[in-house]
Prior knowledge:
- The protein is an alpha/beta fold.
- The protein folds into two domains: 12-135 and 328-341, Rossmann fold (3-Layer(aba) Sandwich), CATH 3.40.50.720; 139-323, Dihydrodipicolinate Reductase, domain 2, CATH 3.30.360.10.
- 29% of the residues lie in helices and 25% in strands.
- The protein is built from eight helices and 15 strands.
- It has helices at 22-33, 83-95, 137-150, 171-185, 217-229, 264-273, 291-294, 325-341, and strands at residues 12-17, 38-45, 53-56, 59-62, 64-65, 76-79, 99-102, 131-133, 155-164, 204-205, 236-243, 249-258, 277-279, 300-307, 314-322.
- The longest helix has 17 residues, at 325-341.
Amino acid sequence: xxxxxxxxxxxxxxxxxxxxxxxxxxxxxxxxxxxxxxxxxxxxxxxxxxxxxxxxxxxxxxxxxxxxxxxxxxxxxxxxxxxxxxxxxxxxxxxxxxxxxxxxxxxxxxxxxxxxxxxxxxxxxxxxxxxxxxxxxxxxxxxxxxxxxxxxxxxxxxxxxxxxxxxxxxxxxxxxxxxxxxxxxxxxxxxxxxxxxxxxxxxxxxxxxxxxxxxxxxxxxxxxxxxxxxxxxxxxxxxxxxxxxxxxxxxxxxxxxxxxxxxxxxxxxxxxxxxxxxxxxxxxxxxxxxxxxxxxxxxxxxxxxxxxxxxxxxxxxxxxxxxxxxxxxxxxxxxxxxxxxxx
Length: 343
């Protein structure tokens, strides 16, 4: 099937696949906030959620069980139901002529599937064949910071440690963190059912499957996806991903090696002017970005930008971003807006 590389400049019929999950609900919220041009909105989910009522723009919409006929007449599908679900319905969606923006990791590294952060590689969005992949949350936040710096000084190597919130494991993990935290405060032993270990007053190395190289799947997502987005397939990159007891904002400690020395003030000036970034530093008060600062906001907050004392060509910095918004739902909608703007 041949697709228009952009969405026509008219109100669209939009389907949200996985509308009852944390990211799906945030998509609905952002569609309303940004006045996305919608003629008809269809809420699709599993049979378990079908029949539930969701309010949107003052109207009560019924969540429907996904089926092939639900995609008839749809222009755009915003999918956040998991890779197996998108894979199952991809042919039906594309046969109906709709473009998919998928939040799962099922297609991100596929040849011919654009992996897009609109502030970084917007041009890639138009090379789609009916599907555009939304990157991993930590990758989105990181690439926003790397790209403007890389435009001024070639990046040779990245070392990152992530501090990832419960929201990355879904709404049930967020609720579990609240419940188990209260259990600890009440003097009880927390027993996790959603995550492999309790996050209450605790942290653990990311629970995604370990790979043959001893890196976990989450770490390899960051490595491979950043290389693809930045068009640097040979970028030296290492990551350690950690799950921490925070509800919905991720943080990252980043060390960047450049081709040449990079003056700290110059780097700060570039970051302060870069789209999607807020430079957040109060050196006198020793106050830098925290998850509470970015929860519910669109920008990635960056601070503690400093010279790496161990290497003249390296900078250190810290960033925080809302995992559900810019790390997932907002980025997907911004991709859709790119396709609208080109009409």
